[in-house]
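agent: user wants the full assembly modeled, not chains individually. Plan: 1) parse entity lines 2) check alphabet per entity 3) run joint structure prediction 4) return tokens. Steps 1-2 passed, two entities, 630 residues total. Proceeding.
--- entities ---
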Amino acid sequence: MNRITRLFDIRYPIIQAGMIWCSGWRLASAVSNAGGLGLIGAGSMDPGLLREQVRKCKQATNHPFGVNIPLMYERNDEKFSILEEENVKIVVTSAGNPSTWTHILKDQGFTVVHVIANSKFAVKCQNAGVDAVVAEGFEAGGHNGREETTTMVLIPQICKSVTIPVIAAGGIASGKAMLAAFALGAEGVQIGSRFVATPESSAHPLFKQMIVEASEGDTMLSLKRIGPVRLLKNNFFREVHQLEDAGASADELSALLGQGRAKKGMLEGNLDEGELEIGQVSGLISELKPAGEIVEEIMKEFRDVQTKIIQYSFK
Amino acid sequence: MNRITRLFDIRYPIIQAGMIWCSGWRLASAVSNAGGLGLIGAGSMDPGLLREQVRKCKQATNHPFGVNIPLMYERNDEKFSILEEENVKIVVTSAGNPSTWTHILKDQGFTVVHVIANSKFAVKCQNAGVDAVVAEGFEAGGHNGREETTTMVLIPQICKSVTIPVIAAGGIASGKAMLAAFALGAEGVQIGSRFVATPESSAHPLFKQMIVEASEGDTMLSLKRIGPVRLLKNNFFREVHQLEDAGASADELSALLGQGRAKKGMLEGNLDEGELEIGQVSGLISELKPAGEIVEEIMKEFRDVQTKIIQYSFK
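--- prediction returned ---
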């Protein structure tokens, strides 16, 4: 037990990241049933779909689960109303200002977590009344911080700047990495990439296969002039990279990106033209595995490393 | 005791990075006297100066110390001859091919460590007969790998690919981070930035001050078209960044870089025009401190975190 398991009333301090196109009710309920906290990724859902997903998730698990809502999209008020109506009271907000929604959500009895990548925003979260922060390092997939601070450096920095519990994200897909994050001061971990490579994730099978086959150096932080995002290297990535190398403007990059690239790649499996968001740790993922097994394996390895690490003695 | 303390015959598995302009005999002997392994950074020394530094270091400590020799510079044969003559038999090679020198050095009885940033080179090191590798993550200062793999992801990858011991580098300046590295599979840590901010380092006082004052986002991996190097943000960095943003070629960047930029900044204290190489972890360094105290503090914190981490129980 720690502050994170108590906050969410869960068994293990493992949060499955709410990811666009990849984390619907099947994945979220599988993780929650295994003792972690599953999150439905609402960033790629309109309010109607979100309600449907939430209802299905409630049928699939009796354990707590939550919803990730990136604040940069529209119709947030409708989405939060649905969560209120459906009595799903754990929300992870991201990609926006924690001051805008937190006090409203807290008044309605929500548990509110916000995703950050630097101390300034962590302090802002704490002042806004957020219950915990997810601190996301440079190695994480998808949208990322401009400072490029890695998990190893970020977690101690965030723990120094706030007193609310810190959930580490970025580069974590194993019990070893979970223990490393705890050594750095985290009280929970948020895991994304590892849960995309599961039968329960709604990612396209071809995208899952590409994750399993990815190795070192196969992802790169890109599109920095628009907003940094970590991509798996494919034809689309190479087009972006060429433009960036030639000194392209944010407008030119936005024009290339266009609309619907992430859906095309991650949901529809167009591996050439799609935007494939995934973490650097995909290089360490070598097979698809059910989400529940992943949770159990991570916890087993966490305990094994605990036992191993205390044996080191340097006098 | 572990494979790293036995390999070097030292008390603590802490290696002080051999850094150009910053790590002469004063720093190396202070770290070795404190129970770690000090390294003289020969990259910025001609053979004559190296011999002088080695002799002074031998007078200042009875404990083992070593020398870092970046293979991309000239007169390596002379430098290795000096080490042989002076009976300093620990060498850390970097920035080059481990196959070129390792067998020669091993035949002469050297302990050989090589610095790498990906599994391919780690395997190459092992095949060449290297005794241990330093695996250096994206967050490390100075020259860096093209894959941009962070310490959190890199260490498990390297440990999976070789059986020789792995020394973790990049983002490590505390006992917490050391324990995190051990959880990931490392058996030693190489620490650079933290030891630059000591009275014993030969860095210019103004550079040391700038490290102490640095905070999040104040370093950035730069000059990727020539060879990636992590720099502290100053006027020179901003010039580089502008050129890169405009799509400058490697030649244009090399012309801007010119000769002697690192010396100008790090040794001579020209904070505007110099090239200031330092790690991302500088954001966590807030005061100058004697190298020996740093070693003791890291080991104390390592033990404290060991005790704390075993108390986590999730059932």
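agent: reporting back. Chain B touches chain A through 57 residues (CB under 8 Å). Chain B has two domains: 3-202+285-309, 205-281.
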